[in-house]
């Protein structure tokens, strides 16, 4: 058992280090990027990575069909993907927690109404909802964040509602209610701290899913629009040339894979560490 716990800790710290590197790359991408990610140079079209015989040391990971530097695009895309993930998870988590707290504590017809709304939301496929909303609002970074937040809040609402309905019958909550504690203080001092562990676990597991969502929207042309680079749009542009220039889609795909994998490892570690029923 200690060996398994030690292995999980090592995986967590390795995953956290990789995530930290991507966050740092996104934050400092403007200074680290060797070229302007939006700059086109048709004289450098589809240059292979530097280790190829035809490669150029000034373009370490090669160039795209428009002569844009792949490495610079990856650095700029990291900022977009991580920004969307953090903002969308923050918005959806906040909305879901509020709905879950109100539904679980008040109960009755309000609980039934809010839970039916979450059921309706869950029955709508994400892609269909995204196409409808972005078709009405227009594709942009802010609208991508809004669409993902609207699509993702129900998981938080369901989780927090279940936890709150269980907690409202506990003695410390009843005592606080008998003492005349106002409901905002009751929520923030007694209910929210007791559901926060579950919410944090869901957040860590949700970040990777949101990155996939953003990449899928950008891949379909519904996400962040050019000239702002994103991993999904780079992947979509590179798929046309995958037979002759694999690097244009390989490296954006690897970036998505590595970040999502590391985020899931970190989320799994948090889940195991905060679950009292876990033997690890």
Please give a structural write-up:
With 280 residues, the protein is mainly α. It has one domain (10-32, 68-274): MetI-like (MetI-like fold, Orthogonal Bundle), CATH 1.10.3720. 72% of the residues lie in helices and 0% in strands. The longest helix is centred in the first third of the chain and has 37 residues, at 70-106. The radius of gyration is 22 Å and the shape is elongated. It starts with a helix and ends in a 6-residue tail after the last helix. The mean pLDDT is 85.
Terminal Cα span = 7 Å
CATH topology: MetI-like fold
Mean pLDDT: 85
Low-pLDDT ranges: none
Class from secondary-structure proportions: mainly alpha
CATH architecture: Orthogonal Bundle
Tally of contiguous helical segments: 10
């Amino acid at each position: 058992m200690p060996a398994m716990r030690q292995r999980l800790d090592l995986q967590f710290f390795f995953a956290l280090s990789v995530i930290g590197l991507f966050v740092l790359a996104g934050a400092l991408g403007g200074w680290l990027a060797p070229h302007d990610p939006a700059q086109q140079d048709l004289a450098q079209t589809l240059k292979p990575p530097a280790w190829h015989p035809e490669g150029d040391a000034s373009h370490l990971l090669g160039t795209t069909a428009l002569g844009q530097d792949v490495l610079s695009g990856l650095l700029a895309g990291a900022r977009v993907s991580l920004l969307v993930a953090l903002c969308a998870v923050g918005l959806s988590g906040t909305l879901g927690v509020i709905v879950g707290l109100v539904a679980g504590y008040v109960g009755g017809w309000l609980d039934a109404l809010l839970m039916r709304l979450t059921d309706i939301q869950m029955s709508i496929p994400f892609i269909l909802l995204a196409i409808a909303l972005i078709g009405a609002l227009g594709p942009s970074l802010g609208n991508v964040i809004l669409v993902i937040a609207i699509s993702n809040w129900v998981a938080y609402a369901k989780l927090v509602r279940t936890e709150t309905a269980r907690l409202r019958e506990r003695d410390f909550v009843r005592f606080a209610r008998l003492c005349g504690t106002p409901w905002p203080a009751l929520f923030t001092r007694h209910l929210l701290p007791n559901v926060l562990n579950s919410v944090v676990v869901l957040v860590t597991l949700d970040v990777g899913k949101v990155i996939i969502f953003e990449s899928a929207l950008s891949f379909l042309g519904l996400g962040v629009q050019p000239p702002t680079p994103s991993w999904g749009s780079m992947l979509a542009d590179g798929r046309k040339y995958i037979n002759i220039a694999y690097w244009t889609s390989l490296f954006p795909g690897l970036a998505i894979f590595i970040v999502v994998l590391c985020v899931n490892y970190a989320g799994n570690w948090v889940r195991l560490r905060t679950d009292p029923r876990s033997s690890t």
